Amino acid sequence: MNEASKGVRFEASVAELLKLSGLEVWPERITGHKKVDLYAEEKHLGTVRRIAVECKAYEAPITQVGLTNIYVNYRPLLDANLVDLVLLVTLNGLAPSAETMLTETRELSHLSYADLQNLVMDFRPYLAAQQHQYDEDGLSQYYMSLRAVDGEDLESQILEWVCGDSERPVAILGGYGVGKTTFARRMAFVLSLRALEDSAERIPILIRLGDISSEQSLEGLLGKHFTATNVVRNYSFDAFMSLNQAGRFVILLDGFDEMKHTLTWDEFRYNFRQLNRLVSQGSRVLLFGRPTAFLNDAEHRHALHGIRSVQGMELREPGWPDYREVHIAPFDRLQVEQFIQKYLDYKRSMAHDTKAKQNLDHARLSLAWRLSERRFADISRRPVQLKMLAEILPQWTGDLDDLTVTLLYDVFIDMIIERDQEKVARRQFTTETRRAFARQVAMFLWQSKREMSLTASDIPLSIVAQFAAPSDDIEAVRRDLVSACFLEKKLGDSLYFPHRSFQEFLVAEELLDTLASEKIGLEQIDAMLSEEVADFMVGMSTAQTLRQLQRGLADYRGTLTWRFARLWITNPAYGDYLLSQLRTTRVPWYPLFLTIAVLKGLATSMSAEDLCEILLQRMEGPNSQYALLCYLCIALLYSDVRDPNFLGAALSDLADTKRYVKVTEAASKRRGRRNANSVSNHHGRTQSSSAVADKNDVEAYRPDPQLEEVLGKVVVMARNRGLELGGTYPVLCKLLRSYCLISDWIDGSTIQNSDLSLPRKVEPSPTNMPGLPLTNTVYKPTTRSRFR
After folding, report:
1. What secondary structure does DSSP assign to 57-117, as a single string?
2. Apex CA 375: angle with CA 373 and CA 380, to 5°?
3. Closest by CA position to 552, among listed 593, 527, 506, 519
4. How far is 690 from 624, CA to CA, in rounded Å?
5. How confident is the model at residue 591 (pLDDT cuts 50, 70, 90)?
6. Residues contacting residue 428 through CB under 8 Å, at least 6 positions apart
7. What proportion of the chain, given as a percentage, has pLDDT over 70?
8. How far apart are CA 714 and CA 724, in angstroms?
């Protein structure tokens, strides 16, 4: 940008700030002999003060010589009583000698651009609060620098962007517990230090998005943040947006994933559109969250890049910003060791007795070699779990091979409750009871779509009453439970979970308990799951858990999400259980789950060929939807089997002439079959119409319409070049989505997913499908396959 255009932009920004401060402003007005940069009038108690504003966007401070020249140039206007004050607004202030001169000149005033902005809205107390928040829980003592997946230091990368010319917003992405919120707090702290030392530096604005539980306008979000959560003098939405456009802020939006789990996609998209209003010329916007907030690639591309798919084409949504994605890397071995050292040093500095300090010294030595073992590689790469390891491992007496992520959370939560309970004089409740209370609170927050914190009085009476005897004082019970239930206390009355992953763990426990007791159905549970809650449920589940869910699964028809379906297929030991259910029941979920388990190599005792043989046998019977599901499972397994004839055999079974359904005569009339001379019964024999009419309940038999609809989409290519099956998948989607299907596989009106390998074309084998026509036609085989 050249000096002239820079000066014009600076004048426009100063004019906007003066207007926001209550002045009337005219740009480049001729006054006397001079065209002043800005002319302003301040009206107060019936008087008007006339101000000539000189704007200087110089890179260096104004010297005494420069200030003298400005004063001399404006002196005639002052002498002629055309203005009452000359206001100099500079980008980089005055030199010391110029400051001295200014104090001796009453008609001349000076404000730096940053000072002028502070007059409009004063962020100095807000900046001090940002520093306090970074120090309050010891984070400043053990914070570890993070790296992006490209190996660069994350803090250096973001500070370079803040000071650079790029206005493209940045999305900081990472899984749970890798340090996103901690990094947001760190950046707010570093940037607030800069802003307090130099008023020209950008002001960090850290906003937690977990507060959002419905469609939220930007006006409402900022209003709550600056008038209730953090009070900023003279806040107004218009002034804030003007300052943002003027390049005064770095806006850190933390936890879009905490917002997502409570919202539909339409609500989530609306909120994203509101947040995107902060992205403008001059802005710096940082967005933090878990990529698992997006259910699929389409949501990811739309939310972060404004790209949406329309009829197979990718289109950019006008005005939607394109976020630069930066992914946080997990800790490497060196970072793990350094974090443990710093964290235990911090804990030692907080210890009050010699014994506790000795234990921590011993812990440092034992952790050094234990964390180098492979079994801790995944656990220790997330800072939140590394802190738990630092607390637990020095006291762990069990087999280290048994220490999983789920068990780590399990033990840590009990340990914290027991530690808090030691401080409570009256111990009415056990650790198990207090943990059950914590689960109820976690579930209440999860279902009521609130953030991770609440006050004791917010906890519903219905929850507290579950733990009280009839003679108990209910408020005394509430106080006792809250005193040691794993919830930590903030300033004031707020209670909160130390990390969102702890809430998710407790929610997972509560949901599994609810499932086993059949208090609510699978569909309701599925709707409440996030990816992380599902992960914890998988870690908690056993074969016994699955047996407890048998009846609920048997009764449920519809779709389940992939994250919920994983409960039945993530453990190789579940293969035998699923197989026994497949052989002994007609519950459609078991062939589907076992198929997925085989495809993922989890049903180790079974091959794809073995399962296809069983599925062909299970297709027999009157339930056409079950048969269609088995056919879909064979199609899913098709790419993993050596013999391609399984799919042809399944089609032959579907086209079996014995598969008929029974209808009443009235239904037959509606289908135009009233005058049929004869119909086939379910044994394949022919009856006369009079014989049918002799029955009290007049019946007819016809081919199953669902099977006909699927088979009607199978095409035999000319010259025996293969079968085209692509047309069957939309029909299967329509017929199975209300019966048994994974919802993530549904793409519009068909079954399609990047993880699926569904055959579109199959070459037939004359040995199991003889007599195929040599022209394009619907495939309706007339003979049974050799697999029958």
Report:
1. --SSPBPHHHHHHHHHHHHHHHHTTS-SEEEEEESS-B-HHHHHHHHT-TTEEEEEHHHHH
2. 85
3. 519
4. 29
5. very high
6. 477, 480
7. 86
8. 6
612-618 contacts: CB < 8 A, separation 24 or more?
612/637, 612/641, 612/646, 613/787, 614/579, 614/582, 614/583, 615/591, 615/650, 616/646, 616/649, 616/650, 616/653, 616/787, 616/788, 618/582, 618/591
What span, in angstroms and rounded, lies between the C-alpha atoms of 163 and 241?
Answer: 20
User: What residues have CB less than 8 Å from 338, skipping those under 6 apart?
Assistant: 144
CA distance 685 to 696: 20
Letter for the amino acid at 691? A
Can you read off the two tokens belonging to residue 683? Answer: 């044994």
Assess whether pLDDT exceeds 90 at residue 377. Answer: no
178: part of which helix (H) or strand (E)? none
What is the pTM assigned to this prediction?
0.72
Residue type, 248: R
* Integer Rg of the chain from CA: 35
Statement: residue 729 has pLDDT above 80:
yes
**310-363 residue pLDDT tens:** 766 888 999 999 999 999 999 988 888 888 888 888 888 888 888 878 877 777
Give rounded-to-5 percent helix, strand, coil for the chain.
50, 15, 35
In three-state secondary structure terms, 450 is coil
Alpha helices in 521-644 (DSSP H): 522-528, 531-540, 543-548, 550-555, 562-565, 575-584, 589-599, 608-618, 624-637
Neighbours of 324 (CB within 10 A): 14
In sequence order, which residues have a C-beta less than 8 Å from that of residue 220 and are 6 or more positions away?
none
- Going by C-alpha positions, the residue among 507, 522, 491 that lies closest to residue 448 is 507
Alpha-carbon distances, residue 176 vs 95, 226, 263, 290 (angstroms): 50, 28, 19, 7
Using DSSP, state whether 779 is helix, strand or coil: coil
Place of tokens 């990390």: 499
Cα–Cα distance between 455 and 369 in angstroms, integer? 42
At which residue do the structure tokens 């699923």 appear?
A: 578
Q: Which two tokens stand for residue 158?
A: 């973001």
Q: Which of 788, 786, 756 is nearest to 769 (CA)?
A: 786
What percent of the chain is predicted at pLDDT more than 90?
39
Query: For every residue of 579-602, which 3-state class applies, written as one string?
Result: HHHHHHCCCCHHHHHHHHHHHCCC
Whether the CB-CB separation of 27 and 15 falls below 8 Å is answered with yes
Name the residue with tokens 């973001």: 158
- Tell how strand 34-44 and strand 24-31 pair up: antiparallel
**How many Cβ atoms from other residues are within 10 Å of residue 579's Cβ?**
21
Rounded CA-CA distance 436/434 in Å is 5
CA distances (Å), origin 619, targets 47, 123, 579, 606, 649:
93, 70, 15, 19, 11
Contact by Cβ (8 Å): 351, 357: yes
Spell out the residues 6+ positions from residue 207 whose beta carbon is closer than 8 angstroms to its own.
221, 222, 225, 251, 252, 253, 254
Coil, strand, or helix at residue 357? helix
Alpha carbon distance 656, 663 (integer Å): 19
Rounded to whole angstroms, the Cα distance separating 734 from 632 reads: 13
Cα–Cα distance measured from residue 123 to residue 233, given in angstroms and rounded to the nearest whole number: 8
Question: C-alpha angle 673/674/679, rounded to 5°?
Answer: 60
Closest to 708 measured CA to CA, from 656, 669, 750, 672: 656
Q: Where are the beta strands (DSSP E) in 290-425?
A: 307-310, 313-316, 324-327
Report the DSSP beta bridge partners of residue 149: none
